[in-house]
Amino acid sequence: MWVLLSRHLRMWLLLAVGAPLLAWLLGRIGDAVERRRGPNTFSRLSRRGRRFLQRRTRGPLRHREPADPDQLAR
């Protein structure tokens, strides 16, 4: 069935569903490792991967930053 979907729809699905889930998983793993062993290379890489994926995520599961009240007043 995956093959029948258009290339753009497959890419959107990966970015809208797969990337947020992977970012969440990387964050959970990084937090668990850091709690157990302290900050180390693996925990830093997993957090960096989470931030990378959060910036590239699209769709309904995208992580949104709260609006800046100063920007809204203008």
Descriptive key words:
74 residues, 3 helices
Q: Can you walk me through this structure?
A:
This protein is mainly α. It has a domain at 20-60. The protein has helices spanning 7-37, 41-56, 69-73. Helix 1 (7-37) runs antiparallel to helix 2 (41-56). The longest helix has 31 residues, at 7-37. The radius of gyration is 16 Å and the shape is flat. The model has no long low-confidence stretch (mean pLDDT 81). Residues 52-61 have a biased composition (Basic residues). Residues 52-74 are annotated as: Disordered. Residues 62-74 have a biased composition (Basic and acidic residues).
Concise summary:
By secondary structure, the chain is mainly α. It has three helices and no strands.
How is this fold's topology laid out?
Elements: H1 7-37, H2 41-56, H3 69-73
Helix pairs in contact: 1-2
Biased composition (Basic residues): 52-61
Biased composition (Basic and acidic residues): 62-74
Region (Disordered): 52-74
Query: What helical percentage do the residues reach?
Result: over 70%
Strand residues, percent = under 5%
Shape: flat
**How confident overall, as mean pLDDT?**
81
Helix and strand composition category: mainly alpha
- Count of helical segments? 3
